Amino acid sequence: MTAMILAQANPPGMPIPALFWLGVVTLGVIALLGGLFITKYFNLWIQAFLTHANVSIVDLVGMSFRKVNPNIIVRSKIMAYQAGLTEKDGLSTRALESHYLAGGNVPNVIRALIAANRADIPLSYKQATAIDLAGRNVLEAVQTSVNPKVIPCPDPSQGRSTIDGVARNGIQLKVKAKVTVRTNLDRLVGGATDETIIARVGEGIVNAIGSADTHLLVLERPDSISKRVLEKGLDAGTAYEILSIDIADIDVGDNIGANLQALQAEADMRVARAKAEERRAFAVAKEQEMQAAVQENRAKVVEAEAEIPMAIAEAFRQGHLGVGEYYNLKNVQADTEMRTAIAGTGGNSRQPAGTQP
């Protein structure tokens, strides 16, 4: 029939088989495009239609032009509608596309909203997308809100196995704690996470041990540590609400007080030795100075004694000293030397200046 129609419309000079094959190719291309269209969009559209997800063919084609994966949007919306969430909850096709284009994890957000809805946890689509775009796992946050998680303190992955504190009597205690927390969705965006909780709890444990008079008081009542830490409100500004702090293990460590006292005594001894050495060096220097002063004075005495013969000669020339007086002076001098020699104390007076006794 088609060949007859083409033959009737065929202008003179053009062969009928060429038009026939042109029509066949055109129909084939149209059929191929239609098949691809049906394969890519119709399957999704029929799924959305049967589940009342309200996604049209035009929306599906538009997603392709906007570089949005229609499979993710349609399946996420179907999942939400099947769980009782509708566009009244903010789950419109355009909103899902917007979150996808912003780099968000649409299926994870939908799963989180479904979990929150089942657990009667107030969580809006806007809040969930904000948490997701902040880099937090919103589904895990909802699950943690339902089932609190336990954070070991300290974190073994950071290389520390215990939190060490020292009581007032100097005894060290090694503590392992477990912190049970529940996610606070209202503070999840911008709130501190596990690392801050571990740091604050560790600080509180060290403070609580340091406030105890003896380590025995802490060993008798380990729960006093957790009570003291909980009273400080360590979860302020964090994404979690601390439910409990449990002391899992506590051991006695070194006597830090005695070690510090021994180190202090050693340091004091070194300081005292240094000061003694300083005083000894000062005394030696002073002794050297005094010996130099003695030698200087001896030189002056020798110099003065050397002037006596010249003074006697001048006295003779001036007539102030007679021969008799001179011999009397010599006798007194000889008598003095004899007495000094007998007493054994006059050796130094005979030695020349600058020589040692």
Automatic annotation (TrEMBL):
TM segments? 18-38, 44-65
Source domain of life: Bacteria
Topology relative to the membrane: Multi-pass membrane protein
Key words of the record: Cell membrane, Membrane, Transmembrane, Transmembrane helix
Subcellular localization is given as: Cell membrane; Membrane raft
Pfam families the UniProt entry points to: FloA
Q: Which NCBIfam families does the UniProt record give?
A: PRK13665.1
Q: What does this protein do?
A: Found in functional membrane microdomains (FMM) that may be equivalent to eukaryotic membrane rafts FMMs are highly dynamic and increase in number as cells age. Flotillins are thought to be important factors in membrane fluidity.
Quaternary data: Homooligomerizes.
- Family membership noted in the UniProt record: Belongs to the flotillin-like FloA family.
Protein name per the record? Flotillin-like protein FloA
Phylogenetic classification of the source organism:
Bacteria, Pseudomonadati, Planctomycetota, Planctomycetia, Isosphaerales
